[in-house]
Amino acid sequence: MNMIYEARSIREHIDCLARMTGAPGSFVAQVRALFTAKGIPLDADAAPFVPALEEAFRREENIRASSSHARQQIAKLRENFRRVGQAYVEQLSHLRRRSGQPEAPPRREGGSRRGDAVRVTIAGDHRTLVTRTVREELPMVPGPKERQ
Asked: How many angstroms separate the CA atoms of 14 and 109, rounded?
């Protein structure tokens, strides 16, 4: 990232980098505050700080781009999950129609509330099978000093 014009002060260099990278005002304010907190006036010569400033603004720009990309990917994932859920409901409805089971009422978008719960019935016998406990008793083997 090479500068378009030669900045003389830290303030000018920060402003130039902010325009070039599109950095948000909050980040620019943090960078300025860092210098003033360290007792470095913003009107001081920027030359010793140019590489660090350019690196900071470049990293901020990369983070912003990565975050934007991640948000877009999350939106796509949500849409894909919504489509998968919709396909599942359609497939379940189709299977119920074929098997003669009554269809469940369609659910509203946005999830269900307490009184809106959808009952899911699973075919088959769900009773628990109870059996008596089986214990395996192994024969005792006498030790070396005991009678064999």
From this structure: 48
